[in-house]
Amino acid sequence: MDMKKVLVICMFLTSVWTVNAQTFETATNAVKNMGVGWNLGNTLDANDASKTWTTTEQHETCWGQPVTKPELMKMMKEAGFGAIRVPVTWYQEMDANGKVNAAWMKRVKEVVDYVINSGMYCILNVHHDTGADGNNFKSWLKASGTNYSSNKVKYEGLWRQIAETFKDYDQHLLFEAYNEMLDEKNTWNEPINKTDGYKAINDYAKSFVTTVRNTGGNNTQRNLVVNTYSASSTPDAMKNLELPEGKGHIIFQLHSYPNWRNESNAKNEIDYLISNIKSNLLNRAPVIIGEYATFTTWPSDIDYYTTNRKVALYAMDYLIKKTKEAGIGTFYWMGLSDGAFRTVPAFNQADLAQTLIKAYYGSTDEYKYPTADDFETVYTVNYNDEWSELFLFGDWSNANTLKLSDYKGIRVELDNDSYVNKLQVKLYGKSSSQEAYIPIEGAVTTVTFADFQAQIGNEITKITLQTLNGAQTATVRSATLIKSDDSEVPGSITVAWGCTVTAKSTPKSTGIHAVQYVKTNIDGTIYNLQGQRVKNPQKGIYIQNGKKYITK
User: Fold this and answer.
1) Dihedral sign of CA atoms 56, 60, 61, 67 in order
2) Catalytic residue among 60, 176, 269, 291
3) In this predicted model, what pLDDT tens digit does every residue of 88-108 receive, in sequence order?
4) What does each C-alpha distance from 368 to 333, 357, 364, 428, 495 come to in angstroms?
5) Is 441 helix (H, G, I), strand (E, B) or coil?
6) In terms of pTM, does the model score above 0.70?
7) What are the phi and psi torsion angles at 137 (to 5°)?
8) What is the pLDDT of residues 510-522, one digit of tens each?
9) Would you call 291 a catalytic residue per the annotation?
10) If exposure means fewest CB atoms within 10 Å of the residue's CB, which of 301, 323, 409, 430 is most exposed?
């Protein structure tokens, strides 16, 4: 071939590559353009080391969340969210050679497509393949030199499969190397052996970046995310995270959960966090806070949204304003729309979602926040065991309580009057000895709390609908709490234990959403981060009813 023609062809190919590189936005611009983000938590990241899945639905729903539908992503986009972090746990879907189950990869791709087709950015990661050990299970990715040497090939093989699957996706898809990677001693915040632990984190980060880049296509310019040790927000963990390649397409990530007491304390905590990010990370690459929430896991399990909403909403407003000002991205962890609300779809924390969006954009006028009040929902309950229970209010955490001075009672509406002698309402007081049992009277049963104050005390921690005669099916139309001023608020119908729920929701007015279905199987079980059921949690981090908490 004529050398001039060869030269022209090479110049043409170089020109095409250069144009593609120029049109793929920088990491800094990506963080800015993502706006406010949200985590699709406890879904594709759910896992249970004691089980072998036969369907992707079994895996996706094993921690109680419904199968994800595209309508949920449409709702998040219409509410003003610009990005969704999709945590994925892979270890149960890999064979002995590290090959990912094709059905699982297909399902992950479907959910990523839901996000991107809704016009949002998506961050896809490797999630509970890292984390604290529990019982007989040990996470396979650890921040140690020995672990890295043993698992380098398998880890790079996993990312090669993911990268090949998605290499033609545009800049709206980002990859995240690993989640909260700990050392061999399961140490949070900073490794015990700092030299070894930090070196391993950086080695894993470099392996991730090199592997993804080598797959070619858009992956040569894709924006990639690497996390601090255990996704820690300590200055030391930030300082020791290295930039795995030159500037331009790398984003640093950390996580932050609060320990507020009042508004002043919340402000100081947020200011301190942002100051450290600026000094230790943001001066080298753009940053996202990949997980944050209104609840704390240490020193105790407190959800400020429930216990002190004024402080919670103030802190969320301040955090979003200050992170936007600093150019730091944010992804709220899991709440806002949770459990059965995701399948309606609707927000169960609409005011919190509005707070985040208003803080970022200055207004929520053009956005939509559907709630359960916009839908008529009927719940079909399948009781599998005698004494199985359905939550009508509260959960096993006892974080929420009803004061008898504020509430008169609860009204339970079923589809007919055939449940007499088959179901009962159970009231739980603050201690295990404070309980009351009220038989169902018919299609409508009203329980007056004052009548049972002697048995339950001055506060109720949870209310359930319990079966009396073993396996049976019941249809629940609503559970409504009646306040002392006769105003009414809906209860929260979720599974307590031993039953499943199918919720059918119909819009009250046309044009909101189509009818959706959900199978829910939240049974109050405590899981470690590897999905194993735990009866007596010891030291470590656990998940119950969709929330992380730490036992020390």
Assistant:
1) negative
2) 291
3) 999 999 999 999 999 999 999
4) 20, 11, 8, 36, 28
5) coil
6) yes
7) -100, 140
8) 444 333 333 333 3
9) yes
10) 430
